[in-house]
Structures are given as structure tokens and as C-alpha cells.
Design a protein that fits this description.
Blueprint (H helix, E strand, L loop, with lengths): L2 H19 L5 E2 L9 E2 L2 E12 L9 H12 L8 E9 L8 E13 L2 H18 L5 E7 L4
Antiparallel strand pairs: 1-2, 3-5, 3-6, 4-5
Length: 148
């Protein structure tokens, strides 16, 4: 093993160990008496929604259909706030020769990790699959330290 590879391997191992063993802290909320003093057990969830082919602006779901979905399915479940990003995405289905290129939205939610919130996220995914006919809505969830 070359010295450079040994160094990089050691650095990666150190970073992995530091990340895995770093203590989680409770973030504090400053200056907002409407919220509790500390937030614990919050998560960050990203949901990826395909709207239609990237090269066909008029195919798939348009902006008005997305806004209607957001208003009726998402905002009612997470009324305290959310973020939405316009993104280009691609993925390749099993057995497909080429990736499918999509106009997409990423919905970012930060919330206390409760059974009700987890059920709300799953309800949003199911509602989009019903409305769009898509086979999936990618979900990425990870712990989050938040502060307002």
C-alpha cells in the first residue's frame, strides 16, 4: 500500500469513526416563546417527485397540478413550514438501457419524529403515486439538529 493510499484510508476511517460516535446535542430555540426550549428527536426528510420527462415541458404534471397537490396533501399535514426545490433528476429502471430524465421536485420537511408525522409522510407519498401513476416517491430521512 502506498503512503498516500494509507493516509487516505486512515483519514476516512477517522472521519467515519468521528461521525458514528459524535454525541447528538439538543439544539436550543432562541427568542421564540411559542416553541419549547429545546428540540430533540427531529428528522429531516426529503421526498423526490417526478413531474414528467425533462425534454417535454407539457407532458406529466405541470406547476398548477403540483401546487394543488402541495396545498391539499402536503400543507395540510405539515402546516408549520416546508421547502420545495425544482431539480433535474434521472434514474434507470431495472433492465432499461438508458436513464429516464425527469423534471422533478424535492420536498424538504423538518419535523419531530413521531408516529403521526411518519404516517403523514407515507400518506403524501401514497397520494402522489395515486395521482401521478408513478411507481415510487424516493424518501430520504435522517436525524436533524434544528434551531429556530
Amino acid at each position: 500500500m502506498t503512503p498516500r493510499i494509507a493516509f487516505l484510508s486512515a483519514a476516512l476511517l477517522c472521519l467515519t469513526a468521528c461521525t458514528a460516535t459524535a454525541p447528538r446535542s439538543a439544539s436550543t430555540l432562541h427568542g421564540d416563546p411559542a416553541h419549547p426550549e429545546a428540540t430533540t428527536n427531529w428528522v429531516r426528510t426529503e421526498l423526490y417527485f417526478g413531474l414528467g420527462p425533462a425534454d417535454a415541458a407539457n407532458a406529466g404534471a405541470g406547476e398548477s397540478r403540483w401546487r394543488e397537490f402541495l396545498d391539499h396533501e402536503v400543507s395540510t399535514r405539515f402546516p408549520d413550514g416546508l421547502s420545495v426545490y425544482d431539480v433535474y433528476g434521472q434514474w434507470r429502471d431495472r433492465g432499461a438501457a438508458e436513464p429516464e430524465r425527469l423534471r422533478s421536485k424535492v420536498l424538504l420537511l423538518l419535523y419531530p419524529d413521531t408516529p403521526q408525522h411518519r404516517a403523514d409522510v407515507e400518506a403524501i407519498r401514497a397520494a402522489w403515486k395515486r395521482a401521478s401513476g408513478d411507481a415510487s416517491v424516493l424518501r430520504v430521512t435522517q436525524p436533524a439538529d434544528v434551531s429556530f
